[in-house]
Amino acid sequence: MNYTILIYETAADFARRNDPDAKKRAAYWSAWPLYTKALKDAGVFVGGAGLQPPETATRLSLRDGKRHVQDGPYADTKEQLGGFYMIDVPHLDAALDWAARIPHADGRVLEVRPNLVPPG
Amino acid sequence: MDARRAVEQAARDSYGRLVAFLAARSRDVAAAEDALGDAFRAALEAWPRCGVPDNPEAWLLTVARRRLTDGVRHARVVTDALSTLLAVTEEAQAVASAATVFPDERLKLLFICAHPAINAATRTPLMLQIVLGLDAARIASAFLVRPAAMGQRLSRAKAKIRDAGIAFAVPEPSELPPRLDAVLEAIYAAYGSGWDDVTGADPRRKGLALEAIELGRLLLRLLPGEPEAQGLLSLMLHCEARRAARRSAEGGYVPLSEQDVALWSEPMIDEAQQLLAAAERVGRIGRFQLEAAIQSVHVQRAWTGRTDWEAIALLYEGLVRLAPTVGALIGRAAAIAEARGAEAGWALLQMIPADAVAGYQPYWALAAHLQKRLGRMERAADAYRRAIGLCEDPAMRDFLARQALPS
How far is B393 from chain A (nearest CA, A)? Predict the structure, then answer.
């Protein structure tokens, strides 16, 4: 069964990616590939990506048949989507076990959702 | 004391005893919990108005029993109608002032929670809820399970206890040893294992250590002199005694061999040592006494300044014979590596089946450590990467990342 782990990050979290302190920057970057590798070694990795920070977002909506293009992310919340993993595991407990191993940081929130399976 | 605090105090002190007493009679844990929940709600109503009863337990018990024997689901009668409430209060006061002492049936409850008919993964959550009164959400967080799912599992288990007619009894002497093992294991599962692995492991059950120790104390009070119960409590106290030393001032992970012994809790270590000595006098060795003995050897470093790895290796040898868990096999390999060299430890580590350790972080952490000591840097780096990728604890991740750097 496929699950998606959505990773929500705070502004401070996003800032860590470009931390002026090389050590802190390295601490941020070094953990992700190892986690991805652990998923691959376990044979549960389906896909995933890190996302550029929310200010790079462009949103597109359709209202009354008219297209609206706007700057910025859809929701104006403290935590923004920073990336996601898609994994194939037998059940939710296993998905949560993997989610718990995602490199943690204060304020980072992980959301685990089963992928939708089309009916029929 | 104000009435609200009196209710909270009663809930903390007596929840398990009251559930045990009610469930032993109704044979229905969920119904006993519901009735007791109503009794606590009634107490929140009545005590501020009528004063805190002399014997709060007896008061709660009387109200809960009345609710249980009513059978019908009109719980609100107790909480809403003041006249009924006053009548109940009067009745309860009468019972309370008679200084009734009701028997402690929690031992039966512990055995029921760890009954073979109950799914092994549900035993610990069940104990935490029924005996200590923890809510499902908190248990769910510690066990990394959805709160709704944990609630369902607990309800199903309680229905099974009722429907399967699991006996509210302490097992016969002939079947006591395996049944007791299940109780001990369920309590230890609340504490979490792998805390003191040489190279470190992730604490899996966050925030339940004190509850586990409370259960351990309770079991020993109910089974005084039982050496394995003493061993388990000794083991948990030994691990707990080192809590403050496990993290540096900056929050970094500190392995056991580098911990500042001045930060270890002396009172806890004293108690742990006394428990282990008492258990050994009984002369019936078991898994938890061996695990406690291993911790006891580690503690000697506080006085001798060194760790007797040969003694630890010997104890692990015994442990592997009694309970060959992956954790014990890894602990033995680590101890042998310290006592007789990395090559000997590595040889033991390689004997563990690969599929048993594919996702087991402590294995990869130790493998990395030993490969590094053997100078096989390429393979060490690989194992470090694997251990880090499987880490849950950020402090451990940083520690392993530092270890992985060429020294």
Answer: 8
pLDDT in tens, A55-85: 999 999 999 989 999 998 888 889 999 999 9
CA distance A65 to chain B (A): 41
Contact list, A5 vs chain B (CB under 8 Å): none
How far is residue B207's CA from residue B150's CA, in Å, rounded to a whole number? Answer: 17
CB contact under 8 A, A42 and B388: no
Please report the pLDDT score of residue B49 as a whole number.
87
Which residue among B145, B358, B397 sits closest to A93, beta carbon to beta carbon?
B145
C-alpha to C-alpha distance for A113 and A5, rounded to whole angstroms: 7
Distance from CA of B162 to the nearest CA of A (A): 27
**CA B302/CA A96 separation, integer angstroms:** 39
Three-state SS across B20-50?
Answer: HHHHHHHCCHHHHHHHHHHHHHHHHHHHHHH
Domain boundaries, chain B: 3-97, 105-304, 308-407
Residue B324 near residue B354, CB atoms below 8 Å: no
Contact B144 A97 (CB under 8 A): yes
Q: What is the mean pLDDT of each run of 10 residues along chain B (407 residues)?
A: 84 89 89 92 90 88 86 49 57 58 87 94 94 90 89 95 90 91 92 51 66 94 96 94 90 90 96 98 95 95 94 96 91 96 97 89 93 96 93 87 84
Q: Are B367 and B329 in contact (CB under 8 A)?
A: no
Alpha carbon distances (Å) from A47 to A101, B154, B402:
16, 34, 29
Instruction: Determine which helix (DSSP H) or strand (DSSP E) holds A47, and give its type and residue range.
Output: strand A45-50
Contact in structure between B39 and B69 (CB atoms under 8 Å): no
Return the CATH architecture of domain A2-114: 2-Layer Sandwich (3.30)
| B146–A34 C-beta distance less than 8 A | no
Quick check: A34 and B359 CB within 8 A?
no
CA distance B335 to chain A (A): 27
pLDDT at B145: 87
Q: CB-CB: which of B144, B359, B391 is closest to A96? A: B144
**Rounded to two decimals, what is the model's pTM?**
0.86
CB contact under 8 A, A37 and B389: yes
Torsion of CA B192, B196, B198, B201, to 10 degrees: 30
pLDDT of residue B167: 87
Interface test with chain A among B202, B397, B400, by most A beta carbons within 10 Å: B397
- B308-407 CATH choice from 1.10.3900.10, 3.30.365.10, 1.25.40.10, 2.10.109.10: 1.25.40.10
